[in-house]
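hiii, so i know i said id send this last week but things got crazy w the move. better late than never?? heres the sequnce for the chain we talked about at the cafe, plus the structure i predicted for it. fair warning i was half asleep when i ran it
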Amino acid sequence: MAMLFLVLIIITCAVLAFFVLIQNPKGGGLAGSFGGYGNQMMGAKQSTDVVEKGTWVAASVLLALTLLSFILIPHSGNNLNEKLRSQKVNTPGMQAPAPQAPAPVQQAAPAPANQAAPAGGQTPPANPNK
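okay and structure toks below
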C-alpha cells in the first residue's frame, strides 16, 4: 500500500509540475511558446482557466494523497532508533552502573595527651607539636 501511495504521489507531482510550467504568467512562459498559437488557431479562449483549474486540482490531489498516506499506511511501533535504544537498555553489559555514594571516611580524633596508653602494650604516637 505504501508503494501505491508513493507512485501516485510521484505521478501527481509530475502532473502538478506540468501544469505550473505551462501556465501563462503575466510576462509569458511556456504556455505562450507552446500553447499560445494553438489556442488562437483552435479558438479555445479559456485555456488559462483550464490550466489554472488543473493546477488547483493537482495540488489538492497531492495534499489529499499525502494526508491519506500518513493516515492509512501502518506505522511500526519499533523503528530502528527505538530498537537500538531498547537493546542498550536491556543488555546487561551495556547498562551504565548506578552511581554509588562513596563510603564515609572516619577520621580518628586526636587522643588527649593525658590519656593512658592503649591496651596491648602499644605506646601512643608522639605529639610533634610539643
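btw Helices lie at 2-22, 30-42, 47-72, 80-90. thought thatd interest u
miss u guys!!
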